[in-house]
Amino acid sequence: MDPLDAVDWPLRTERLAIRRAAPEDAEPTWRWRRLPEVGEWITRAPTEFETYLEQFVDPERLRIQLVIEREDELIGDVMLRIEDGWAQAEVAEQGRGVQAELGWTLDPAHQGRGYATEALRAAIGACFTQLGLRRVHAGCFAANEPSWRVMERLGMRREEHSRKTGLHRSGEWMDGMNYGLLAEEWRG
Questions:
Q1: Distance CA 165, CA 163 (A)
Q2: pLDDT of residue 188
Q3: Measured distance between the N- and C-terminal CA atoms of the chain, rounded to whole angstroms
């Protein structure tokens, strides 16, 4: 069973709805994912829609992909990947499926209004309540200040600032930042 099936979709906030992505969401999300200022920081930044569509509808990716809607318009997306926590061999089973990695993009036309923070707060809330996870984490290039500022606004703790550990598509090795939050630290 897919763990995300346990969530009561869509998640609703005061201004947004967050739901599981569907294949037909590829075209509207391409609107911002093709922009250089978005592609600068994301893991995959195809330059052709056909390549993006193939990646978007991949069942493994679609399974972890959420979209952010505001007044029936897609304005962003969230990746919510359930993962195993690190565990020693004797207790490995208890470490399975206990945490989530988050990632996100937001249409630049909708940035600066708190939508990413609002959507991620809802996703984190679902992780700790409906999914019963013990931890969430997210990472970014250190130069991507808007992303790590969102993590800090959410109450996530900076766990690592690594030196030149991520190879950027520009060819430059860049610093990385990783943040985490435990269920007992969550204030909703």
A1: 6
A2: 65
A3: 27
Query: How far is residue 117's CA from residue 110's CA, in Å, rounded to a whole number?
Result: 12
Helix (H) / strand (E) element for 56: namely: helix 49-56
**Residue among 169, 85, 175 at smallest CA distance from 139:** 175
How high is the pLDDT of residue 149?
98
The pTM of the full predicted model, rounded to 2 decimals, is 0.96
Helical (H) or strand (E) element with 164: strand 157-167
Inter-residue contact 100 to 81 (CB < 8 Å): yes
CA angle 162, 134, 137 (to 5 degrees): 25
What are the per-10-residue average pLDDT scores of the chain (188 residues)?
A: 94 98 98 96 94 97 97 98 97 97 98 97 98 98 97 98 97 98 91
Identify the structural domains of the chain with CATH numbers, from first to last.
3-86+96-139 (3.40.630.30)
Q: How far is CA 39 from the centre of its chain?
A: 15
CA atoms of 80 and 161, how far apart (whole Å)? 22
| Nearest Cα residue to 116 out of 156, 83, 162 | 156
